[in-house]
Amino acid sequence: MSASKKEKEPIHDVDMDHHPSETS
């Protein structure tokens, strides 16, 4: 799922790091 999100918005790469809960 993470890969899909990254492909959609690579800019959110940092957001993911700040919000590990979202990745869960």
Describe this structure in words.
By secondary structure, this protein is mainly α. It is 71% helix and 0% strand. It has three helices and no strands. The longest helix has 7 residues, at 2-8. The chain starts with a helix and ends with a helix. Residues 1-24 are annotated as: Disordered.
Using only C-alpha atoms, the radius of gyration works out to: 8 Å
- The percent range for strand residues is under 5%
Termini separation (Å)? 9 Å
Work out the helix count.
3
> What portion of residues is helical?
over 70%
Q: What's the total count of β strands?
A: 0
| Poorly predicted sequence stretches spanning 5 or more consecutive residues | none
The run of helices and strands is HHH
3D shape: flat
User: What is the typical, i.e. mean, pLDDT?
Assistant: 61
For the sheet with most strands, the description reads:
none
Class by SSE composition: mainly alpha
Question: What would a concise description of this structure say?
Answer:
Residues 1-24 are annotated as: Disordered. This protein is mostly helical and 24 residues long.
Strand-helix topology:
Elements: H1 2-8, H2 13-18, H3 20-23
Please describe the structure with a list of short key phrases separated by commas or semicolons.
24 residues, mainly alpha, 3 helices, 0% strand, single chain
